[in-house]
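Page 42, continued from yesterday. The earlier attempt failed because a stray header line got pasted into the input along with the sequence. Redoing it now with the clean sequence only.
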Amino acid sequence: MLIQFSILSGVVAFGALLVFLVTAKAVARRLERIRRALVQQVGRRESPAAELLYQKHSLWAQSRQMEFLAAFRYEMLMPKLVVVWKCPQPDSFFCVYEERGKQCFEFISGLDDERASILRTASCLDPFALPPTVGVYAQSFSSTSPEDLRRRHSEALGYLAKTKRARSDQDRRQFSELVEDAVQRQIRSIRAKYFTTFRYLWWSAIASSRWGNKTVAQQHREGLWQ
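This time it went through. Structure tokens are written below.
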């Protein structure tokens, strides 16, 4: 009986180790794919999906003095087509894209501080697909209109200017640079610490839910970032 139990324990341990190794390899491949991803501009009229997103939201964007920039495609965690407008504020952009079959809005701003930080405010959890790190601030609010999201983004910019002396950049970075820089920082942060696989899986399954529907100020008060 004892021998059978020992054999069974060995088989279970071997199976668990095999699952972990396969998972670790899959996580490593995924992180590497994200790291190598580039933001590529595509012709709006050449993509029916991009044209549809543009037609749906162009009037609202123009009424807020936003200027259409371009459509972009990139593969980070998953293939994504993003339609982007340039906001009147320096280094700020309004984005519309599809996330798991649901339309998502997002504002992105480059911040002029010692870390050249980034602020992302979205109506989905896409900004939290990877753990935030130093210089990458993010907040998401479910079922939020573009106007409400714009207000929340503006409030967050004000809070960061007050607490971190981080203000909107002076149009120093392109949209693609902002997105790629944020993702690269997050990838480096994950890889720089021990237990990369466990950290990534823990974040994807549990930890990321702690950040949803919380303003940057709330995150700061709760100690989610310093």
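Notes: Helices lie at 2-36, 48-63, 146-163, 175-191, 196-205, 216-221.
Reminder to self: strip header lines before submitting.
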